[in-house]
Amino acid sequence: MKESKNPSAIRSKKEITDALIALMQDHSFSEITVKQIVLEAKLERKTFYNNFSSKEDVLDGVINSAIHEYVLALTKSPDGPLTVIFDFCDKNRDLLNLLHKNNMLYLLLLKLNVVIPKLNASLDLSNNPFKVMIGSLEPDYLIAFNIGAIWNVIFKWVDRGMKDSPNYIRETLEEYFKRI
Fold first, then answer.
1. Assign residue 103 a region: left if phi > 0, alpha if psi is -120 to 50, beta otherwise?
2. CA-based, 20 to 30 A from 6: which of 80, 81, 114, 135?
3. pTM assigned to the model
């Protein structure tokens, strides 16, 4: 995605992103073409390519935006990481369901595996939400372990239709952690 502060470019990006999301409601991602996105957004093809290089680039932007929102919540919320994670998932359930429907939920995992270690390394320890879990232990493996474990719980939740409340899942995990 090409960065721009131009209001017109920002509006066009949103229209393109919204068009892709709308198309993904009824079509598989693999079937969607740039032409369909442009038609749905009622924009020129040139506008699309001024902002994105491909439909994958549009989806990457959607995922990056969601991850950015998650990271902000994680660093600013007084709640623990589990609460923030499941609140984030609940808020973004439409995106998670679309990714799941297209067998692309793993893209979120790939982003988390890049973003969370960088976040951990960049935060001062007094603001680090992972401090309690990791402490002075080697962070790389522990972060990968935590992301993988939570990721599988999220995947299972989405796969089961996200019927259970985020609080129920968080409480279940917290109870489990007490037992180990």
1. left
2. 114
3. 0.83
